Amino acid sequence: MLVMVLASIDIRIRSSSVNVEGLRRLTARPDAVKNAPIMKAPRFLLRGFRRPSEVASLALGKLERRVLEEAWQRGEVSVRDIYVAFGELIAYTTLMTTLDRLFRKQILDRRKDGRAFFYSPRLSREEFEHGIREDVIDGLLGGSAEGIQPVLACIVDTVSETDRELLDELDRLIKEKKRELRRKVG
User: Fold this and answer.
1) What is the spatial distance between Cα 93 and Cα 80, in angstroms, rounded to a whole number?
2) Where does the chain hold its CATH 1.10.10.10 domain(s)?
3) What are the tens digits of pLDDT across the range 84-105?
4) pTM (2 decimals)?
C-alpha cells in the first residue's frame, strides 16, 4: 500500500505568474477575495524524476513491452507464437531479437526444445511493477538520512489530502513494521 502511495506522488509548487487584470478586480472588491475560489497548485515533474510507468517505458521499448504482455498472458511463448499473435505484421527475426533481449535483461527465462526456444516470464507482472516502484523510491530517498524527511512529509501531506483511510492504512503499516523489527531484535 505504501508503495502505491509513493508511486503516485507528484511534487507541487505555487505558480508565480499573476493575472494582473484578475488582481485589479479582486482589489477593487475586497469581499471578492473571501469568496474567490481556492486554486490548487499546479503539478509538475522534476527533471529526471519519472513515474513508475515511465520508468518501465524507458527500461523497455514499446515492442518489448508488447511482447512481455503477451508472455504474461500466455505463460510460455515461442517466437512463432508471438509472430502469429501480432498478426504476422512484425518480422519474425525482429521478434526473435526482442525475445532474446528480454532474456538477456533477465525478464524472461528461456529453454530450448529441438531447434526452437521457448520463453516464459521470470517475474510476474506484480513483481516487475514492484521492482520498478522500489527503484523509484530508492531514487527519491537518495540514500541520505537528511533527504528522507522531506520525502516522508510529502507522502503524508499527499495522502492526507486525498484519502483519510489511506493515511490510517499508512499508520497501520508503520506500526506493523515496527512490531516486526522489535521481534527480530528481541
Assistant:
1) 10
2) 54-125
3) 999 999 999 999 999 999 999 9
4) 0.54
